[in-house]
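Session log. Operator J.P. requested a structure for one protein chain; no other inputs attached. Running the standard single-chain path with token output.
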Amino acid sequence: MTPLSISPGGKQQAAGLARQLGQLASSRKGAAFAAVVVLAGGGFAYVQELQKQQTRARQRNSKPDAGNSEGARKRRGSPAALQNLVKFLLSIAGKRILVLFALSIARTALSNRLARLQGHLFRAAFLRHVPLFIRNLSENVVLCLAAAAVESTAKTMLAHMELRWRRLLTSRMHSPYFENMTYYKLSYVDKQVQNPEQRICEDIPKFTKGLAELTGEWTNAIIDAGFYAYQLRAYSKSNKYTAAILAYVIGAGGLTGILAPNFGRLFKRQQENEGMYRHLQARLRSNAESVAFYGGIEKEGKIIVARFKELLRHHSRLLTKQWQFGMVQDFLLKYLGATAAVVLIIGPFFGNNLRPVDNVLGRAHMLSTMRYHTSVVIYLFAALGTLGSSSRKLMRLSAYADRISDMQSTVKGLASSVGMKREGTIEPTGVIVPSEDAIAFEDAMVVTPADATLVRDLNLSVPAGTNLLVTGPNGSGKSSLFRVLGGLWPLTKGRIHKPGGTTGDGLSHDIFYVPQRPYVTLGTLEEQLIYPLTASEVSAQDAIDVPRLRDLLREVDLEYLVDREEGLGAEVNWGELLSLGEQQRLGMARLFYHKPKFAILDECTSGVTVDMEERFCSKVKELGCTCITISHRPALVAFHDLVLALDGEGGWSIHEGATGSFTEETIPEEGEAVVGNGSVQRSGGQGTANKARTKDAAAVLQGMRAMMRRSASSASSANLEGLLRESSAVKEEVIARAPPPDPQRQDIVLPPKASLKPSHLVTTWQRWSSVAQELAGKKTQQQLMQVGTIGVVILLRTLLQDRIASLNGRTVQLVIRQDKPGFIRLIGISVLQSAASAVLAPSLRHVADALAMTWRRRLTTAAHARYFKGNTFYTTSQLAGMQDVDQRLTRDVDRLCTDLAELIPTMVKPVVDITWFSWQLWRLTGRRGMAFLYLYSLLGFACLKLVTPDFGLLASTEYRLEGAFRNVHTRLRTHAESIAFFGGGPREGRTVAAYFDRLTEHLLHVANIKWLHSVADDFFTKQLPFNVTWVLTLMYAVDQGEVANDPVAQGLLVHNMRYLASVVSNCFTAFGELLALNKRFAELSGGVTRVSEMLEVMSKSEQLQRCGSLKRTPSSPRSPTSPSQGIQFDKVTVIAPSGKVLARELTFQVSPGSSILVTGPNGSGKSSLFRLLGGLWPLTDGQIRKPGGNSGALLSSDIFYVPQKPYTTIGTLREQVIYPLSTADAVAKEGLGEELTESSRKALEQRLDMLMEAVRLSYLVTREGGWDANTEWGETLSLGEQQRIGMARLFFHKPKFGVLDECTNATSVDVEEHLYQYAAQLGITLVTITQRLALVKYHDAELRLLDGEGDWELRQIVK
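Structure written below.
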């Protein structure tokens, strides 16, 4: 709403952005003087502010840095980063910029011609010269169509440019990101850039979009400023008008620049908050099963909700700052500037050569000239104002540019191996050199990124054919040794000789690494075996045909994967489909395909049976591979020639393997190491006499020695399983078996993914209704107030607009009457209206933004209430298969609420405007004008509808592709170490690039589709209505008849004509906004559908948790889980979510004090039993009785589950052990007081110290800096340490029953046995899933799942 803005084409608000505050006086000298005052004042204040900023900068720089490079980067100014990025991108744009300038020139030329035609049309209407009016109107219509085409083409060009820039920046980021394992080092070694996927997937597109918009605005502004400054000079014969406008813009721009808050810092903080919130949601999705088993969703939910509240708090502060600054900026640069423009426009017509001649023709000529003069000044003001009022946009871009440049410089440094040293750590000086047939370490020193020395002065040679076993306690550096060998970590000191030398492509060629955590890529079954190669990189000789594929998979008992229903060419998420053991076996098949010289097996068979592990070792030998194995299993000593033992504090020792024997003398004393000849020498170079972990290392070696003695007494190790059973001195008797299949019974099972998926029968209206119900909620007072405030503000703006429309005509009336005092009074009123407009417009934006935040809070809270209830989060992401639920909860909800809040004003404002201005139109033109207006609107809507694409489908596809691109980046970060070991960076880079290409191709397709619609939309809703306005104006003038040569009568006619034009223009603008609602609703439907689908799946998941049944048969209704003193399965048929029967009518009981062992091949359903027990899977048949009855999670005072996949929560070391309780809850549980105090915390820590001693992790408390240490524990702790933390949780909670799901397979034998003995001392009855048959002696029964097809046996263990 521009006070007194006489805009070209009837657009009164195009004027803004100029501010000649001192030109209220009609005198041009006074105007110039006022402009100089504003300029001088603004410049003086600007210089003062610069001096203050420099002083503050010097004070900050004088403070000590404390070595924090992240803080140094934050203090570094953003303008340099923005300048470099913009300079680079504009240079790349090249011809597109020239084309954009050409389009801008064409746009300006058309605008100039249209501005002249506006004057001619007004003159023809005033004179009622119909033929001249028709000729001018015809030309105007044609030029309007051309202008619409040019405008749409420019928008399409900008969209193409934005996509090109996004592709360029993303590829430039991806290129070093996937080189030299940078993706791994960035998150696990350097750790200076948080949430890199946020910067790639969110910051880059927001930056390129903002830059493209600013480029378009500035291109138009530069052309307009130059052209209209020339035009103004041409007919005014003076530069004083241009100088006055420029002076005002510079002065007001300087003032607003000084008053502007540090939006760059605020926007950067907002992006960091968004990135962390998204990371937490993705982290929960990735660890859903472990969190569900622990019953930790309440704690995880609190962490996520706390981060979300912090995000909203900061966003609220940002919105308040924007609102406050927006009022000042709009007043100075828009509304007051428009008033100043009116002075410049109208002032010259009170004197000099522009004063109208005192007759009808003279006044008609004056009206035409004034119309063009208005357009010139307004366009010039707008152009200069655009150039001078972009500070907020530039600060936002600077925030994004700073984050992007920050990451670019970091990844480039890491990709070139520069920047690997962190502040306060040892400078790496080691080198890796090529070797033909050996891996050798010379004085090698291994130091963690946290500067902990694990291995010191290691000297070891492993020639081809010599198999090496690496052992030691958890966290001693076994895997870390090969992180250095593979180039993941820098070699701090010494030399390493290896085949391939310094190549930084992991261990996937001459040396092949099979990691501790199995990794399966997204793709076909064949691609799993050839990884990290792709099908195009495999030669014809090495290609895998179906017979060879079967042979490879038969070696690891996975041949059944070939016959899957999906077929061999299907791309499958194998990480969800296969169990841990199956993934490990697939990893071994991958090794058999590649046939490397050296194979490094990093505890990669912990999830398979002992006999299969033996088969793997034999197969590796047959292939001629030299095997380097990291393991705690003593049985593997028989397959190795050397044993390297590490102690985790720098010490190491080397022993003979199968050809020698472990004697007491070969066990190292504290600070000593034993080499192959049995002599004792110092290892690590320190000779420390008091190593805290020497006993742990010695215990591991003693366990190896004991097993070797037993295996030596056996003629061979072929019957290793029998040997282990004999060593446990137990016998087993079968006491129950699975009943034979009943052919008459047909189990009708509906897989969860099918029953939980969103319904396709739901209409768009129902989708909108479901989201609206969540947005409305129960407490609607705040929303009603916000919506009511929007309505009041819009009503006030409409009334103010009507007042401005009347004053526009009043100014021309005063010129005709040459009433200069009246004009001065009118300017005073205009200043007051400028102040009112400057409050109303930003307030409307602020209330809409606040409403968006309210709706986001409400919608997210409603989703969280469902998602964090019971196991809904697990069911939604795992059983329902909604793998992008984190994208929907974060980005989609945010975008939807923002768009919906912006929709409210665009819905309310047209209704109010049409109601008010239609009445004014009826008053002036009667029924004919109303009919003309509404008929055109209906025809325009019909024409626009014909060329409107399915924006809802396009938007939904865009959101889905954006989510997929983000998820594949998150997946890369989660599995970064395994991918780095495989050297899979290039392969994963191509996968990520493929997802990105699909996204950008869709965005390019959308941009091209929108061109025709944009032309039609601009023509029918913006350009053509101006022509209709002139027709109605002519009709009104003709109806008035001849007007005498009377200034008063002619002034009244001109006033009414101008007011009518403004009324009709406002009506058409409102109708145009209503026509655009169809597109807005269509685009919003995509986001509404995705959010509604998420809510629907959550509701179905919640319902499934309550009823728990996916099938119904008349013969076997489901019985609810009921309470019991023990755990009892009664005729339970275990059915996987896919519908496969894993165990048929399973019946067994676990009584307190009688532990049971659950065994069976991989994928047979061992863990699935406890997914049923814990409520993660629905119970389809039979009955389960357990302590606690229907409680969802296994965590309780009665049952505690320690999952196969270790999980560490976000928090302190203390919170890892007491998880999922808070410290206050843990204190209350231990009976240490009702409130958390320092003394109760100390008492709790003393008990936790005892537990850490029990799991042999007491060194962690000292190493990490106490119980309050807080880090990313999943990265800090080794797998074995994480598993022992899981056991410490079990001991802390002391339940009646402990379910152990292969949760100790990464610990040494002595530690594992100690843990089981300690559990027995605490009176915990164990239900153990394991492949380690040595644990039989700690159990009283064995449940053996035979084939994963339904058969099972229950055996009594006789000790």
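Operator note: Residues 414 and 689 are 39 Å apart (CA to CA).
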